[in-house]
Amino acid sequence: MEPIRAFDEEVNQFLKSSEELIELGTSFAANISAALENFRHDMDMMASSPFVEKAVQDMLNESFSRMEARVKSNLANIESICRDGGQWYSFYLNRALGRKVTPPKSEVEIVKKAAGQGAA
Question: Which of 36, 70, 83, 111 has the fewest Cβ atoms within 10 Å of its own Cβ atom?
């Protein structure tokens, strides 16, 4: 096998693995975001109960809002890394790739795909 062809095959294998990792990272961020939304919904239902004092409701809501903001900020960073991470390949490999790397799917597409796989 020619060295250039072997290198191209290794690059293609690397890119395929990277694309899978990027999709996994985006899927992870979407799943965490959905879990936060579900937890927020459940917490709001419990906190609105007449058995929970108003001060406790306010404390829970404020505490969760701060945590949610931090988590969403971290998730946005993960998505940014996944979305923009493929742009360094040509610099890392010291040559143009000759192959377009597709950006990761949107969060909505990944959630729909995961929902479809879960039902199958």
Answer: 70
